[in-house]
Amino acid sequence: MFATTRRPWWIAFVCCYINFLHLGTARLCSLLYLAALTRYNVGRSQASFPFILCYTVRNFASPFIGYLGTKFQLHLVLMWGSVLASIGVGGCYFAEDIYTVIVLWGVVFAIGFGMATVLIPEVLSQNFDEYLTNANGLAFSGECIAGFVLPPLLQASLNTYGTSGTFLLLSGMILHGIPAALLLNPKYYRKNIQVSPKSIKPLAERQSSSNEVYNGTIKSDKLSLSLETKIPSKVSMPNKNVIQIAKRGILHINEQSFENTFGIRQNILSDSSIEIKENLVSSSFETEESPISHSYPKANKKKGKHAALVRKETSSTQLLKEQNCSTDYGTLDTEVTREQTPSFNMEEKVLENAASPPSPKLLPPKKVSTFEPFRVFLDPTFLLIQVTQSLILYNCTMFLTIIVDFARDDGLSSRQEIAVLVYLSIADTLGRLGLGWVTDLGFISTASFSAVCCFIMSIAFGGLIFVKEFKMISFLTFVFGLSEGGFLIVCPGVISDHIEEDKKPMALAARFFLYALLSLTQSPLIGYIRGKLGSYDWMLVLLAITCLLSLVTSLLTPVAAKCRDKRKANKDVEERSNLIERAEIEVLDIV
Description:
InterPro entries: MFS, MFS_trans_sf, Proton-linked_MCT
GO molecular function, one term: monocarboxylic acid transmembrane transporter activity
Pfam families: MFS_1 (PF07690)
Order of helices and strands: EHHHHHHHHHEHEEEEEEEHHHHHHHHH
Keywords: Membrane, Transmembrane, Transmembrane helix
């Protein structure tokens, strides 16, 4: 068994460093776009295309990356993502035309960049049971930190080594993500706890003493069968390994509450898998009779129990083997211990005209389809989450693109334009680092908090339409950045709270898939509204409306999750009822 020794906050710092390298590099696209414009002597549309294509390919590839996360260890996917991203950026050193940069940066780097960053929320969700929102805020603050640190360094590199040399330096910087990804290997932060056989024995004695045992005969209105097997107390014979058992099996059938041949009630068959652990131990034997029982707990806290009389050999034991068997009926919280004696024979005498009750049939585990992780796209709850988060990401990237030009249209100086950008980055960082406590401490649910953030962003966009002064523009931009940071860090928490456990890795990876489609409309929309209409006011109106739409879908997310869970519960009840009916028919046929 594995146990985390402490809350792994250092894992969040490692993820922050990985985001610093990859998201920080991708965020340099505005400076690299200007450098490519002069280096390859092309137009603005061609020079900007590889950097726009990068985000589109990254989000298109997110479902595939999520699938890799279900098949391989997460730290390996992040490691190979760093390798691929470094190859893509380093290859641009040899590029002599913009088309090579489009392939290397826009495709190769984009896929590696996605592999190294898309699965980080899943890494955090596996290591944080609480304070998950703060962990995400810390991890993704690396992008904001890179926004302060890397631009001046990049400008100095462009002046010293040129565009091609800068690509090579960025490639070397991204390679530092490989050791960081390897640090996320679970063996470095999880401790394997060895359990000795001596510690198992008192636990087993305590368990057996706490279980209730009933050795009487149960009378039924319909049927009561009793089976008895008699075994000599001590028989010795070389080269034989036989288990001595003296057991009584009781079969009880009732119309109101059905118990199968081992006394398991109808309500034990609800979970998705049965796990039975068999511990084989060896010992020299001294036989003594002791009663044992097994109880099978359920969600509704009812228990079905069966009793048997077993000859138990007591001596020094040695653990030999542990087997795990699984099936699709339900989870049986029991541990069956079988003791194996060196040499003895078994002799059985069965009462005449007594039918042996059949043992439960354990079905082989279902084979998981290759396309099973992609079934999350059929979940209405995930579709609502995807619409909410993709629309807000679309608004954020659109606002980052137009904010400088918008400030210039309002008559702000170049110095004031830079100040507005700085305020936006500071607010984003504060939102990511400081607002996670609101949901982690339980003051508000993640879905409600995201709805509040959407409403605040809508107010900020609407206010920017009517203000023209530097102070008010800076204030509303700061408010937008604060709510943007809070929204982005709570996004993984919304998925963790409303998506089923087996679908979370794919959901976390593919949550921005819709943005990949929407991003293709950004450049044409900017060109039409600014070029044809002559102002960004209608763009701000559009952004405010999409924020309100995201507010509605965010509030509908918990409702959709409850409806899905209710449908699934009804389906499980129906399947259990059908299973019980088939079992009753089989027992009646045997009788």
